Amino acid sequence: MQESRFYEQIGVAMTSRSYEEYVRMFSLDGGLAAGSRVLDVAGGAASFTADAQRRGLRAEAADPLYAMTPEAIERHGRDEIEAVAAKMDKLRGVYNWEYYGSVERHKAGRVASLEQFLGHYRSGDASGTYSAAALPDLPYEAGRFDHVFCSHFLFLYEQQFDYAFHEAALRELLRVCKPGGEVRVYPLLNFRTEEYSRMEELLAMLRASGAEAERRRAQLPFLPNSEFYLYIRKQNEK
């Protein structure tokens, strides 16, 4: 039997990515203005929110994971890191290692991000930062955030979540974004490294709502065909 050349995933994974990875995924090399309100949706155990606060951003994150205790998150996170490393080791030739360098360095980065996240999650500084919530129902008032990010959730799980879910999720991301603010989603792929099959319909829906919506070039050459992220700019109030 031929071995699969695709990443196999059952259920929704919990990941621990760094601030620097977000900069590359969403092409944020120009920086985010200090004091901006930022939301990381499906943030998992990423250290992005902790690091964003340290940089002067009013950052928050939402994920069902945050209903768990820090101890449970740590156990789950470390198990997930080991599982991911084992899968990637079998697929070394599939990925572009220009940024991460190797499976071992990729794993070390995940561990470092998890530990930074846990330190922040356990601290008093994190009060009100992490909300146990899931798309398409977020517990925030409309127009709260200047920037809304969602990585490695929408589109990736195309086989598990239907078109109606994706449409509702994108509408919800726009709802919590302020007029004139931005929503960014990465990657645009499913686990077969193919672009989400109904992307054009979603783009048409977003544009019909008055938003600017387009593919923009990302800066994280790792997954095959992952050159782009989805950029959405919410219409200003008239």
Automatic annotation (TrEMBL):
Lineage, opening ranks: Bacteria, Bacillati, Bacillota, Bacilli, Bacillales
Superkingdom field: Bacteria
Full protein name: Methyltransferase type 11 domain-containing protein
Source organism (scientific name): Paenibacillus athensensis
Gene3D superfamilies assigned to the protein according to its UniProt record, in alphabetical order: Vaccinia Virus protein VP39 (3.40.50.150)
GO molecular function: S-adenosylmethionine-dependent methyltransferase activity
Domain Methyltransferase type: start-end pairs: 130-183
Record InterPro entries: Methyltransf_11 (IPR013216), SAM-dependent_MTases_sf (IPR029063)
